[in-house]
Design brief:
Number of strands: 12
CATH topology of one domain: TIM Barrel
Pathway: Porphyrin-containing compound metabolism; protoporphyrin-IX biosynthesis; coproporphyrinogen-III from 5-aminolevulinate: step 1/4
Largest sheet: 10 strands, mixed
Low-confidence stretches: none
Cofactor: Zn(2+)
CATH class of one domain: Alpha Beta
Enzyme class: lyase
Order of helices and strands: HEEEHEHEEEHEHEHHEHEHHEH
Oligomer: single chain
Catalytic activity: 2 5-aminolevulinate = porphobilinogen + 2 H2O + H(+)
Radius of gyration: 21 Å
Structural class: alpha/beta
Shape: globular
EC number: 4.2.1.24
Length: 326
């Protein structure tokens, strides 16, 4: 054989232990944030048809879910509320006894060790399904800011450890930061949905949260999926306004954006592995078309590799089990 001069990269792949030694990206339970959907009433456990394994739960049935998370080693969750009534200004979002606030109190009283993140938006609470005040078919930016700040204050008062505003109004981080500081919650961090695209991957979530727009869509405030530089402008603005974490949503189709954001700002980056990404894998796995564990783990590792420090994912419970048994 003629002498060849080439690199033998396979030397570092020859055994499982050796592969683990040189592995560059790791996924840990501490990286996972689990979303929960809390509804009003008693004895309510509604399966979300488009999201197998995900439920809307009333407070009296929440204990079992929380105990399971504790047993699995999941330490962080994000709370979404599904109110019994809605109006045109989303008033139950900033009701001191609104469903999100009640849920936060319930969790922190029974399981104070959880890091509880409050999703801060109006869309689940408005009868029109948009993330702000609407006048003659137009979403009004500045009047909405006051309501978002008010919502965040009541969430912090209820015991939220982190406020996560998801509305994509201009100036929402600045308004919420000012409101929290003036109310004495200057130590509560903001996990901003800084880079949130007007994506087709959100459909199943809207089933779970009952938050579909009743007219039009959200492209006037969520980002165009074709845009890259816009994401960096949004991210930098939110950091300047006082955000402590930045969320990129969705995650899987926007890994390039996630890496750009990670390289641009010095803050923890959160990938939101959204409902559509979850449901596609669940549907394919149910039909025996894919290896669910292999596909999920590869997907989440790709998010970590792209720059995510944390991942919001409906797969969290399954992943925690797999990590325990690996």
């Amino acid at each position: 054989m003629t002498e060849l001069n080439f690199k033998r990269h396979r030397r570092l792949r020859s055994s499982d232990h050796l592969r683990q030694m040189v592995r560059e990206t790791h996924l840990h339970k501490e990286d996972l944030i689990y979303p929960i959907f809390i509804v009003e009433g008693e004895g309510v456990k509604n399966a979300v048809a488009s999201m197998p394994g995900v439920y809307q739960l009333s407070l009296d049935l929440l204990d079992e879910e929380l105990k399971e998370l504790v047993d699995l080693g999941i330490k962080s969750l994000i709370v979404f509320g599904v109110p019994a009534t809605k109006d045109d200004v989303g008033s139950s979002a900033y009701d001191q006894n609104g469903i999100v606030q009640e849920g936060i109190r319930f969790i922190k009283e029974r399981f104070p060790e959880f890091v509880v993140i409050a999703d801060t938006c109006l869309c689940q609470f408005t009868d029109h399904g948009h993330c702000g005040i609407v006048h003659e078919g137009k979403i009004l930016n500045d009047p909405t800011l006051d309501l978002l700040a008010k919502t965040a204050i009541f969430q912090a008062e209820a015991g939220a450890d982190i406020i996560a505003p998801s509305n994509m109004m201009d100036g929402f981080v600045a308004a919420i930061r000012k409101g929290l500081d003036q109310a004495g919650y200057e130590d509560i961090p903001i996990m901003s949905y800084a880079v949130k695209y007007a994506s087709s991957f959100y459909g199943p979530f809207r089933d779970a949260a009952h938050s579909s727009p009743q007219f039009g869509d959200r492209r006037a405030y969520q980002m165009d999926p074709a845009n890259r530089n816009e994401a960096l402008r949004e991210a930098v603005s939110d950091i300047e306004e006082g955000a402590d974490f930045l969320i990129v949503k969705p995650a899987l189709s926007y890994l390039d954006i996630m890496r750009d954001v990670k390289n641009t700002v010095n803050a923890p980056i959160v990938a939101y592995n959204v409902s559509g990404e979850y449901s596609m894998i669940k549907a394919a796995a149910a039909n025996g078309w894919v290896d669910e564990k292999g596909l999920v783990m590869e997907k989440l590792v790709s998010m970590k590799r792209a720059g995510a420090d944390l991942i919001i994912t409906y797969h969290a419970k399954d992943v925690a089990r797999w990590l325990t048994n690996s």
